[in-house]
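Our preliminary data section would be incomplete without showing what the modeling component actually yields. Below, a chain of 118 amino acids is followed by its predicted structure, encoded as tokens that our downstream tools consume directly.
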Amino acid sequence: MKTDCELKRLAVDIVGGLVFTDRHLSDIQLADGHIKKVFLPLMLNNMYTPEHIQRGEVAMIYEYLDKSGKTHNDNSGLPAFATINILSQAEVSKLSDYIQQYEHMMEGHIEFDANFVS
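Predicted structure:
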């Protein structure tokens, strides 16, 4: 389970474009199995199954873009990762709130908190 501080840092990094998540894939790409071409460890095990998703164990898969290898050669331009991180449904719920808070701070809708990620 990620700490609040880790989730806030992740929120900042997602908004900053440093992180690739399964949410970046379109429904068509997901249906075509691109998720296993992007997040290569999924080819080796069955952690991304409907059962895991229903139990809320796997709600988001992500990795930092600087950990990407070469893009795979199917002309999709998608990154390929040898490592992955997984968030549960509870973590994704918190992360979504933090992303929204951070975006509001960046847009000036709420006061900027310099200690947001500490």
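The radius of gyration is 15 Å. The helical segments are 4-15, 27-31, 34-38, 41-44, 50-54, 89-107. Preliminary results of this kind motivate Aim 1 of the renewal.
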